[in-house]
Amino acid sequence: MAISISVVLLLLILAVVFMRNSGLKISHALTCLLLGFFLAGTSMAPTIHSGLTATADLVGSLRP
Q1: Kindly report the CA angle at 19 between 10 and 42, in degrees rounded to 5?
Q2: C-alpha 17: how far from chain center
Q3: What pTM did the predictor assign?
Q4: Fewer C-beta within 10 Å: the chain N or C terminus?
Q5: DSSP state letters, 16-60
């Protein structure tokens, strides 16, 4: 578990640096993809999923 958290933090830092440089290349996209897969395996996954679901429901219920 400690290695998984370290990898998630490293990938998160890399993704933030790549996005701040405003140039998303294939290697940067793969880093973000790996970050997503590693986040899905952590204990934060249900919280992230419920937050995204609630946000999608809120946006879906808005009327223009």
Answers
A1: 35
A2: 14
A3: 0.54
A4: C
A5: HHHHHTT---HHHHHHHHHHHHHHHTSTTHHHHHHHHHHHHHHHH
Question: Residue 13 gets which letter from DSSP?
Answer: H
Tokens describing residue 61:
């219920």
End-to-end CA distance of the chain: 45
Number of domains into which the chain is organized = 1
User: Residue 7 has which token pair?
Assistant: 């990898």
Amino acid, single-letter form, for residue 9: L
Report which residue type is found at 45: A
Predicted confidence (pLDDT) per residue in 6-47, tens digit: 777 887 888 788 777 766 677 777 777 787 887 777 787 888
User: Which letter, b or e, does each residue of 2-24 get, where b requires 16 or more Cβ atoms within 10 Å of its Cβ?
Assistant: eeeeeebeebeebbeebeeeeee
